[in-house]
Amino acid sequence: MLDRVPGNPQSAAKSPYEAEMIRAAKSALLAFAGICASVLMQPAAHAADLSSYVEESAASVCNVPSVLNRISSKFAHQVRNVPNLPQVAISDFHRIHLRRSEPASERWPIARHYCGAKVTLSDGLDRDIWYLIEEGQGYASVGDNVEFCVSGFDRWLVYNAQCRVLQ
Questions:
Q1: Residues 65 and 120 occupy one common structural domain
Q2: Residue 31, helix vs strand vs coil
Q3: For an engineered disulfide with 159, which of 23, 75, 127, 165 has Cβ 3.0 to 4.6 Å away?
């Protein structure tokens, strides 16, 4: 921009329109700097902040004896009543872990916990098991609902191939 006052580079006479545009540009620049500063000042998100990453001990919701007993009982019913399944029972649960947890919220009012483990069957083989615990969804809303899938025992693909729905 050319100086309006000859010989004085510091003084530049501006029209009211130019002054208004400069003030608007300065305001926009300050607002942008404020937004950038607030974003940069946020603490970094860690994996533990994500609901899909959960690291808990085995003494969690997945290791509750009533849940494991219900799975064993339902599995016994399944192998008796589904044709062509081997007649085995669950002997033991091990490597129990919480895979994902979805807490209850206004949008999703049912808390869900996705668990995984290994089960030893009565024939001596170990199989993967995945199970879902839905809080407060038991019979007549008393207790929790438990859905499970043992690898190789979902003959009718209720939980999709290789139990993908519960993984």
A1: yes
A2: helix
A3: 165
Per-residue pLDDT of the chain (167 residues; tens, 9 = 90+): 555 555 555 555 567 777 777 777 777 666 665 554 554 444 444 334 433 344 444 448 999 999 999 999 999 999 999 999 999 999 999 999 999 999 999 998 999 999 999 999 999 999 999 999 999 887 776 788 999 999 999 988 899 988 988 98
**Helix, strand, or coil here: 121?**
strand
Number of structural domains (the chain) is: 2
Range of the domain at 4: 1-42
Q: In one letter, which amino acid is 72?
A: S
90 close to 121: Cβ distance less than 8 angstroms:
yes
Q: Do 79 and 71 contact (CB within 8 A), yes or no?
A: no
Tokens 């007649």, located at residue: 87
Torsion angle of the four alpha carbons 74, 80, 82, 86, in this order, in degrees rounded to the nearest 10? 100
Q: Specify whether 118 is located in the same domain as 148.
A: yes
On whether the CB atoms of residues 109 and 144 are closer than 8 A, the answer is no
Residue 96 in domain: yes
Full-prediction pTM beyond 0.70? no
